[in-house]
Amino acid sequence: MVKNRILIVEDDRAISDGIAVNLQYSGYEYMVFADGQEAADSLGADHSYDLALLDIMLPGIGGFELLPYMKKYNIPVIYLTAKSDTLSEIKGLRDGAEDYIIKPFDVLTLLVRVEKVLERTGKLNQILRIGDITLDLENRIVTKGSEEVVLKPLEFEVFTMLAKYKNRTILREKLLNEIWGADFFGDTHTIDVHIANLRKKLDIADRIKTIPKYGYRLEDK
Amino acid sequence: MRLWKKISIITIVILLAVVVTCSTLLLLQAKDSMIQLTTEQAQTEQRNLSTSFSEMVQYYLDNESKPVVKQSGINYCFKRLAGNSSVLIGGDGTIYSAVSVKPEKILPIDSSHEQRTSLEKIEGRNILIVGSGLILLNDSYSVYIVKDVTGIFNNIAAMTWRFVLICGIGVIAGTLLIILFVRKASKPLISLQDITRRIAVGEYDKRAQIQSKDEVGGLARDFNAMADAVQSHISDLEDTAKRQQLFIGGLTHEFKTPMTSMIIHSDTLLSADLSKEEAQNSLIHIHAQCRWLERLTQKLLKLITLEEDIRIQPENIKRLFDDIIESTAEAMRERNTPLKSECNLETLKMDYDLMKSLLINLIDNASKASEPGQPIALRAYGNTLEVQDNGKGIPQGDIERITDPFYMVDRSRSKKNGGSGLGMALVKRIADAHDARLVIDSQTNVGTTMKIIFPGNPSS
Question: What CATH architecture does domain B3-161 belong to?
Fold first, then answer.
């Protein structure tokens, strides 16, 4: 399985470190630059990136000015911006960025946005493997061993989330938000029913861990 | 009701009352004098007739005359004297009458000689009767003058109508003129009211355009002065609000970066199983960001509470400079920046701690702008303290904004050096608190001179 490679251009060391450690944990490869000019200059020699995360305020050349370089090598761009004024967002997107994330953001938001962009640009790995379970995202088929397991649509979504971010505890609310949308206000315990069904159908009661008062985690080691 | 309407109505009513009263009095007066004149004429005429008649009869006749002669003589004499209004009544009845009226019935004359006058209305006509008694040749006679004075009354009536007409036209013209003038006079008030309303809804730049020199003009001038004051206060308030908004905007922005990395790292620690080393690294980042936020809030607090505990008194500049050199010595050694001081001043009135903090800020900025080895000068002369460097200078366009909170000329470089973007804002605030001016003289790649010029005349 080929890992997706992501370019990070961010001058704040604490932020780029935080992003890097999470990308690595989620199975991505990454490259970090703290200076816009250096990042642009490096592209000539190495431009095999599936995605670029660009800060807007950068030393050297800024995030907006970096966009043409990324386009030249067909690298989709997500902006990381502290400017929450919509004008700059619109400018970023109209100029051809795929998405933008407003600081401060949490890890799952970052990972989901990254994945959505990779999915849109056809660079995302569509087959996930957790032990003897195979998840075909494109055809929405789950197989355990050689047998297909039939999941209800919402069970499939929940399992996909857990599988994509395996070994990571996902906040119950986050899980709901990503599946039902950001404005979910219902009973968060409906998620427990789906989890119980998944544990039974896939026979992975020991692998889906309940973290009290926080959420769930799918372990694969 | 509008003021101009009120004034118009009151004025018109008064005008009307005065005109009507005067006209009526005038008419009555005219009527009276005309009647009196006619009556006096008639009385004179009657008296003359009576006298002439009596003398004439006595000339021609005497008591000896025979009754027939007497009768025809009297008849003759009266006819000779009578006009078209004369009447002579004898003991047996009318002797001569030129009129259809029987005056003896209306105004009987007794034997006395007194003249009597009467104005009567008979069959729709005004008749003036003047008569008196007369004894001639032992017989009693009455001589009357009967005049139809209806014409006079008609004249008065016609005059009354003319008066009404003239007064009516006068009143209408007067009314129009009054309305015109009152409206014209009240127009400035109406425009003033209009301006007041517009100012009330926030159009603070509106002014009354009234040039007149009367009370309304005075009111307009005072009003404009008031509007000027209101506008300037409002614009001050708006400026303050805008500055505060910018400040809060900057502050929010400033908080976002440390928040972002704190959220990412804490989130990672919470959700992922990191190796001990990775977890340690995340914790170090979180800790560093917390410390940075702490420094930022300290500076903010200083900026906000600066004026609360300021204590200005004469301070020895030499002591201040020595103190500053000692405080900055280590940082200057680290950055390899030589700091020289020239002190040509005894004392200046200042808050010692705040001024020290200001100068350290300037020295810190100067050393950051300088290459290693480039010297910095700290000087005191006249009423000025200055910090001069030969560093990279400030771009011309940034000098204006450099004292804005969170404004950084080179953001990422500044952050790397631990700058908060509050240093120059603090410098400006401290200078302001001393009523001192901050003068920035800078040229890119030549250097920067920051002067703090204290109020008052330079002392030597």
Answer: 2-Layer Sandwich (3.30)
Reported as half-sphere exposure (CB side, CA atoms, 13 A), residue A210 has a value of 12
ipTM of the complex: 0.78
Could A15 and B411 be called an inter-chain contact, meaning their C-beta atoms sit closer than 8 Å?
no
Q: At CB < 8 A and 24+ separation, what contacts does B116-123 make?
A: B117/B39, B117/B42, B117/B43, B119/B35, B119/B39, B119/B149
Alpha-carbon B72 to chain mean position: 96
pLDDT tens digits, one per residue of B432-446: 889 999 999 999 889
Interface of B with A in 174-233 (CB under 8 A): none
Question: Which of A57, A106, A217 is opposite residue B263, by nearest beta carbon?
Answer: A106
The pLDDT value given to residue B376? 93
Domains of chain A: 5-120 (3.40.50.2300), 127-218 (1.10.10.10)
> A-chain residues within 8 Å CB-CB of B280?
none
- Both tokens assigned to B119: 């104005």
Q: What is the pTM of this model?
A: 0.57
Give the CATH architecture of domain B216-309: Orthogonal Bundle (1.10)
Sign of the torsion formed by the C-alpha atoms of B234, B217, B219 and B190: negative
What confidence tens digit (pLDDT) does each residue in B83-141 have? 888 888 887 788 888 888 888 888 888 766 688 888 888 888 888 899 888 888 888 88
Contact assessment for residue A5 and residue A30, using Cβ atoms and an 8 Å cutoff: yes
**Quick check: A25 and B260 CB within 8 A?**
no
